[in-house]
Write a structure and sequence with these properties.
This protein is of the alpha+beta class and 346 residues long. Helix content is 27%, strand content 22%. It contains eight helices and 15 strands. The strands form three sheets. The protein has a ten-stranded antiparallel β-sheet with strand order 3-4-5-7-6-11-12-10-9-8. It is globular.
């Protein structure tokens, strides 16, 4: 059966699951099962070891470390690197373009079609997962990961529609948490717009960042600011439309008033939705493009690290655990290496 027919059949099946259950997450769990069955996914996450490090004097404060050796293979991609003579590699063989995925994965990797009010996306399973149901939600088109605020005049994605899509998808996946890694802030494929969503681990569903205190400013569209964390972080929480509107206004002002040169600015965005309260939570983390790593020129800091879970993938990084060199303060210092002060008069 050809790729288009396989795609149509699977999407029809998954759409019926979403419609019958009313849950997008059920469809995407079935997508994950399918991708294991056809052999595209072969990581059951059993080799991953998660460690929790609490503050010695304040047990309610913690960080995590994840030993995930297979993650170190992600930069090479998965599958065939070059097409046959009868096929073309579009956009330099981008790993998120369906036209390339078709030959790269020999028709095994199939995505789920997901529409928001602004864009059409394909949801792909991440072949190097960090957590269960690790999703890559990629723009159907090959469009840049750049945000218009950070690169004026370039072909970029608009901030308001980006916030709307991230928060909308989060509201449809309340068991997950999603993040956007900006260019120079952990984006593994900066040439193609994408989000990542992971299902919260059952054993420890709340991340260290979510347990920290924030100082509410009570000034219109202004956010609350984190009070005791190695990274500067702003947070909006409330009804989805209100969160998006306030964040869009404040971030536009932030960009205008920031002391750094505009070509150095980038960011991470993290979004989640609470089924019990009906509230959306959005975190904004300012970043410098020239400060992407916690370990010299290695160890990218992306969304999961910002949430407080440091990913250790290389042999050198995993050895740090064997030598008992990692504790609460080690991770605190590691995250501090990429901190970018908000530097905005609230």
């Amino acid at each position: 059966m050809d790729y288009d027919r396989l795609w149509e059949n699977l999407n029809f099946h998954l759409q019926r699951i979403e419609q019958s259950t009313g849950e997008l997450s059920q469809a995407l769990l079935s997508l994950e099962t399918h991708q294991h069955h056809v052999g595209f996914l072969n990581d059951d996450l059993k080799a991953i070891k998660r460690l929790i490090f609490s503050h010695p004097n304040s047990p309610d404060l913690s960080f995590r470390a994840q030993l995930n050796k297979r993650r170190s293979e992600r930069h090479g991609g998965a599958g065939i690197k070059h097409p046959s003579d009868t096929l073309n590699a579009l956009n330099d063989g981008c790993f998120l373009c369906r036209e390339n995925i078709r030959w790269q994965q020999n028709n095994r990797q199939i995505g789920f079609e997901l529409n928001t009010n602004n864009r059409e996306y394909y949801v792909w399973m991440n072949p190097f997962p960090l957590l269960p149901n690790h999703l890559v939600v990629a723009d159907r088109r090959h469009s840049s990961q750049e945000i218009d605020l950070f690169r004026p005049g370039c072909r970029t994605n608009e901030l308001d529609s980006l916030l709307e899509d991230l928060c909308e998808i989060a509201s449809r996946l309340p068991e997950h948490i999603g993040f956007f890694n900006g260019v120079g802030a952990g984006a593994s494929i900066p040439s193609h717009l994408h989000f990542q969503f992971v299902r919260r681990p059952e054993a420890v569903p709340v991340f260290p960042l979510e347990q920290r205190s924030f100082l509410p400013l009570n000034k219109g569209h202004h956010p609350a600011l984190i009070t005791n964390y190695p990274l500067s972080i702003a947070r909006w929480r409330g009804p989805q439309a209100e969160v998006i509107s306030n964040a869009d206004k404040w971030l536009s002002e932030w960009f205008t008033n920031h002391v750094l040169p505009k070509n150095l600015l980038t960011c991470n965005l993290i979004a989640s939705f609470s089924r019990s309260t009906g509230e959306t939570t959005l975190f904004f983390i300012p970043r410098r493009r020239d400060r992407q790593f916690w370990n010299g020129r290695k160890g990218i800091v992306g969304g999961l690290e910002i949430l407080g879970e440091l990913v250790l993938a290389s042999s050198e990084e995993c050895l740090l655990v064997e030598k008992n060199m990692i504790d609460f303060f080690f991770i605190e210092r590691a995250l501090s290496a990429v901190n970018t002060p908000i530097e905005f008069l609230i």
